[in-house]
Specification:
Blueprint (H helix, E strand, L loop, with lengths): L1 E3 L5 E3 L2 E2 L1 E4 L8 E6 L5 E7 L5 H16 L1 E12 L2 E8 L2 E8 L5 E4 L2 E5 L5 E4 L7 H11 L1
Parallel strand pairs: 7-12
Antiparallel strand pairs: 1-2, 2-3, 4-5, 5-6, 7-8, 8-9, 10-11, 11-12
C-alpha cells in the first residue's frame, strides 16, 4: 500500500500522495485523508491499526515530518559559506537560520514541495513553492531545480 522512495516521496498504490489528518488538534494518528497531487482523496484511513506495523511506521514518519518541521513562508537570504549554505528564512513561527552542507540538496517531496534537512537534523520545508513571493522563489530556485 504505502511506499517511501529514496528521496522521501510517499506513494500509495503507486500514486504519489500526501497525508492530511482530518482532526490534527485532537488526534493526528486517526482519520487521515490520503490525497493525490490534485488534492483529491484517494483513500481514507480511519485508524493506523488498519495497517501492518511496517506501513504504520511509514505513515507516522510522514505525519511527524509535517508536524515537527518548520514551514518556510519566505526566503530572506541564502549565503554560500565554506562547505556550508546558510539559509535565513521566515517560518510560521518566526525568523530562523539554518545551515546545509554545500554538497547536500533539498529533497523534492512533490512537484512543488521541498524538504531541507539542516546540519543538526532539523527539518524545514516549502509546502508549495508557488505560494512563496517572487523574490523567495528566485532565491531558492538554483538549489531546487
Amino acid at each position: 500500500m504505502f511506499k517511501e522512495q529514496a528521496n522521501g516521496q510517499l506513494y500509495f498504490k503507486g500514486k504519489e500522495v500526501t497525508l492530511h489528518p482530518c482532526f490534527p488538534s485532537q488526534d493526528r494518528m486517526s482519520c487521515i485523508s490520503i490525497l493525490d497531487d490534485d488534492q483529491n482523496e484517494v483513500f481514507f484511513l480511519k485508524s493506523l491499526n488498519e495497517l501492518e506495523v511496517e506501513q504504520q511506521e511509514i505513515v507516522v514518519k510522514h505525519l511527524y515530518i509535517e508536524e515537527l518541521g518548520h514551514e518556510i513562508t519566505k526566503i530572506l537570504e541564502i549565503v554560500e559559506e565554506i562547505e556550508l549554505r546558510k539559509f535565513l528564512v521566515e517560518t510560521r513561527s518566526g525568523i530562523a537560520t539554518f545551515y546545509m552542507r554545500s554538497e547536500e540538496w533539498p529533497n523534492k517531496v512533490r512537484d512543488d514541495h521541498f524538504q531541507f534537512l539542516d546540519i543538526h537534523g532539523d527539518i524545514f520545508y516549502i509546502k508549495e513553492l508557488l505560494s512563496l513571493d517572487t523574490k523567495s522563489q528566485k532565491r531558492v530556485s538554483p538549489f531546487i531545480n
